[in-house]
Amino acid sequence: MKAIKYLSFGIASMLAFSACSDQFLQDKKNYDQVGAEVYNDYDGANGRLNDLYGWCLPTTANMSWKYPSCGLSDDAGQSTEEFAGFSTFTHPENILSSDNSTTTSVPDYFMGTSNNIQEAVYGRIRNINDFIRGVETSSLTEAQKSTLLGQAYFFRAWCYYNLVKWYGGVPLVKEVLEPIESNYTPRSTTKETIEFILEDLENAALLLAGETADGGWKDGSNYGRVTSGTALALKGRVLLLWASPIFNRANDKSRWTAAYNAMKEDLSTINACGYGLYTSGNNVNGSDFASVFTQIGKTANREAIFFTLYNTTVILTGIDDAAKNNMWERYIRPDNTGGNGLIPSRMMLNLFPMSDGKIPAAADNYTKLKASDQVLDTDYPFMNRDPRFYRTFTFPGYRWAYNGDASIHNAHNPSDGPNYTLWSYVWYVSADDQGNVESGNSYGADNLGDGGTYGNSILVRKKSDDLDLNGSALYTYNPAGWKSGAGPFYSAAPLIELRYAEVLLNLAEAACGAGDVSAALGYMNQVRQRAGVPDRTTADFVGDEQAACMSAILYERQIEFAYEGKRFDDMRRWMLFDGGAGQANLKSSWALTGWDGNTCTWLGFKPLNGQRREKIQYRVADKYGVGTAQWDGDPLLNGGGTRPAGINLNSATLSADLEALKTWYQDNLAVKEQKGDGRDSQHNDLYIKFQPQYYLLGFNSGVQNQNKQLEQTIGWGDYNKGGASGTFDPLAE
Question: Which letter does DSSP use for residue 220 in this model?
């Protein structure tokens, strides 16, 4: 690889890691253009480390090379069941290529912005390597070195993990290279890359054990830093990736066994760091599941293992670089409370379990799992569902309380945030549009606007700071900020990238792969018990027990981690778009010889390729007629209709309340399916098509132009060789 040409590096500032402590901000110093002597001072070295945190921590943004998806409708989310609308990876008419001059160029998750050391993958790795070298050669005490180096090794592993999951083997740059072209580092094998990541994580866990393996960091100002448990939890994710079909085409059981044994052994250290499932002792209708995402503090929220903390400091551009606000609420809240809204697909609504914890018969995606005896009413999908359903989605007539008053921004918006109820049904201004699935000529109730986002009624509410649930608001919508330039959205809710539920489900998957179905069920059922649904047993399985168990685990992950940005990685790991059917066409040795030759067939999973995802809308019933295209043109209210009290998800009578809401819907609203995935120019349906080469990405020509000797992945054109097929084999050892 051509060395990335950076002549200097430094720190912009230290950022706040905690919403409840501003210690890092109070100690803020400028470390730009520092020399090696800074590492001889612990505060100076710690300042350099804080900068690594600031650049490497996940954030609430659309998926890019820098950050994994956090659950938005980005290329990751729109490549799964969670959202409708074709992504870069699923559009059947736009096949990606390595040619950077086209509109269908493969995304660059390898390099990023090449002329900015902080905005490029290997620029960050170079900074980490500089930090490691500086600390190792410093005059700090051995204990101080261990504390600092353990955190740096974790972030180097984190950077490389986010490369290997896309590309397989990548150049392993372990030292600070001088910016000269002769410093070329070729791609390592995937196995070597995985082993290097695991080595860094094991080193991190060992070095941090003295500070964190007895209940976590003792100093409260260090809350938010990684621990031995963080390193070992990520290690489990990496081991699972290596054992998964994307890299384990023969289903080599030794990989599953090694992963399972290591993860079992590491669990004791993860637990010793103070981590565990979040429970309050007063779980109501899935309230514990919802509260995971808004609790802060190592005793208040044991579940958060790797996370980014935020504060509510006002953002004043160019003045206050300490502001670190979580924008998630800004993305998911409805327009009349200042947000954008995220619209789930109808497929995802139907996939969630019924209240008995079993998949609805109407969802035929998992045929090796026995379906529920409870019948899903797909027109009113909020009846009799897994408690997590209600904490993941919100419907017209649901309370969604928040701290603020949206009418300050627009007088037509509802004013009472602490008692806000979402009324997101729509009306049409033309009877001809009411039955047209492609029509967006609708108008949303309560000043939700025309067409577009709020023509679809149902929104994602996962990870929301619900004021009915969290009395000490972490989120405040202050519309006065629109005028001041400070921005109206302040949220100090943490963003959790890796939580204890994932540790358990990773363990369950590894146990199943190793053949221990009983242990797998035990780990999975801990997660289900917290959710408030019955345990899984082998009586739930159809056909081969191990395959059905693995299918159950993947289904559990899909529900538990919905809208957390995890599903696309799982679908790629398990090749769930086509079961791996097209791999032999890329290279004969890539054919799956394990999993009966096709992961989807083995799992009993319906491949996502060839399917469509639509959306669902609730419009005003025909008896009220059409309305006008303005905020007060609601024919339901203008025609004498009334609304019931909002549904409080914490109600002890939730089932009866929802039954009453369903009756109100039937009397006052009509159900309409809205087009989700695209159609062609003749208005014919198009269907999802994830190409075989997308499982292991290649580099676009922009990346290769900057790295003349970088070997291209098989299945992608090599820009440096006139477009010839790539030669690097991510599956070769």
Answer: G
With a threshold of 0.85, does the pTM exceed it?
yes
| Other beta carbons less than 10 A from residue 596's beta carbon | 15
Strands 403-404 and 475-477: parallel
The structure tokens listed for 677 are: 């995935």
Is 31:47 a contact under the CB 8 Å cutoff? yes
The number of C-alpha atoms within 13 Å of 699 and in the hemisphere containing its C-beta is: 29
DSSP secondary structure letters along 279-306: --S---TTHHHHHTTT--STTT-TTEEE
Would you report the helix, strand and coil content of the chain in percent, each value rounded to 5? 40, 10, 55
Q: How many CB atoms lie within 10 A of CB 76?
A: 26
CB neighbours of residue 137 within 10 Å: 12
DSSP secondary structure string for all residues of 461-525: -TT---TTT-SS-SEEE-TTHHHHSS-SEEE---EEEEEHHHHHHHHHHHHHHHT-HHHHHHHHH
Q: Are the beta carbons of 152 and 49 closer than 8 angstroms?
A: yes
pLDDT in tens, 516-567: 999 999 999 999 999 999 999 999 999 999 999 999 999 999 999 999 999 9
The tokens describing 421, both together, are 């109820």
Locate 550 and state its tokens. 């693995």
d(CA 565, CA 46): 31
pLDDT at position 484, please? Answer: 61
